[in-house]
Design a protein that fits this description.
Its cofactor is NAD(+). By secondary structure, the chain is α/β, with parallel strands linked by helices. Helix content is 41%, strand content 18%. The chain has a domain of 226 residues: Rossmann fold.
């Protein structure tokens, strides 16, 4: 099996990518420092794929550690780099933490991969690079606006690093996947979003309120220029997002052209925060305690993807519905309660 270095592989998105890699015939080599994930996730991945998973506990900001892992594993043929802090609100409050970790990890991992002769590099980027787009849906050619948060700015910087690195090493193959809003959990209910402490994302907070862990869900702002006044996002099932990484690897391995390619990974339609909450209540047959609050710093009013380029060039498209994602998210939360 071809080995793929998977940084941040014990996290929410990384764990689903690990499963997708095994299903596609690759061997994930997980690197994680468990600063924002739990060791139990490794066991859960193994339970789904029915085999042992190789993992190394290491800080991706430490170049020597990453280089050592690549040398130990010997036959790695590609890298998927996810390891980063990702909470928009927290990044506004602690910008230095985000600059140090997200940009530091990027330079460390891409340098270690390059010095080890690894070419195929997939980066976990974000739709936050677009800032507040003037036209919806956004395409890969949409101009970048000023990032709304330090988190978003780190993604812009990391993409610039890839751009400059491609010029310096033209034989490299790189893909940047601009994620929209991943939600849901694996259909098995064995892995899903596992926030440490208070959730920063809508759906895990919603499921915790539904489970009685938290008193109420606050919608931040009801006066945006959208149909119902709440923010609009492109919510994509995490299993679909994971599949896009496998498609990106195959795209590079089957394509003889060395280049940096960029793809939006979303469903192609926007759903408001209120619509997500209403849909969650409908599909899971329950009522959730909801309140409205003031707008939150760092939040973009509306953004959703045009994913036609990924559909066309990667042969990828989102398969799961928003309803599926909200059912799977609640199933995951219920399984957590039973542990």
């Amino acid at each position: 099996m071809k080995k793929i270095l998977l940084t941040g592989g014990a996290g929410y998105i990384g764990s689903h990518i690990a499963v997708a890699l095994v299903d596609a015939g690759f061997e994930p080599i997980i690197v994680d420092n468990f600063s924002n994930s739990d060791r139990s996730v490794i066991t859960a991945i193994e339970s789904i794929v029915n085999r042992k998973i190789t993992f190394h506990e290491a800080d991706c900001c430490k170049f020597d550690s990453i280089l050592k892992i690549i040398k130990e594993e010997k036959t790695i043929v590609g890298t998927i780099h996810l390891a980063a802090y990702k909470a928009v609100g927290e990044s506004v409050e602690q910008p230095l933490k985000y600059y140090e970790n997200n940009i530091g990890a990027m330079t460390s991992v891409i340098r270690a991969a390059s010095e080890s002769g690894l070419s195929n590099f997939v980066f976990s980027s974000s739709c936050t690079v677009y800032g507040t787009p003037e036209i919806q849906p956004v395409t890969e050619e949409s101009p970048w606006q000023a990032a709304y948060s330090p988190y978003g700015y780190t993604k812009q910087v990391c993409e610039r690093i890839m751009h400059d690195f491609q010029i310096s090493k033209p034989n490299t193959k790189q893909v940047s996947l601009r994620y929209f809003n991943p939600i849901g959990a694996h259909p098995s209910g064995k892995i899903g979003e596992l926030p440490l402490g208070k959730p920063n994302n809508l759906v895990p907070y919603l499921t915790q309120v539904a489970a009685g862990i938290r008193e109420k869900l606050t919608i931040y702002g009801d006066d945006y220029n959208t149909a119902d006044g709440t923010c609009v996002r492109d919510y994509i099932h995490v299993v679909d997002l994971a599949a896009a990484h496998v498609s990106a690897l195959r795209f590079m391995m089957e394509n003889n052209t060395s280049q940096l390619s960029v793809f939006n990974i979303g469903t192609g339609y926007g759903v408001s925060v209120k619509e997500i909450i209403d849909l969650f209540q409908e599909v899971n047959n329950m009522k959730v305690n909801v309140a409205y609050g003031a707008r939150r710093k760092g939040d973009v009013e509306a953004i959703y993807a045009n994913s036609e380029k990924a559909n066309r060039e990667l042969g990828w498209k989102a398969e799961y519905s928003t309803k599926d994602a909200l059912k799977h998210a609640w199933n995951w939360q219920q399984n957590l309660q039973e542990k």
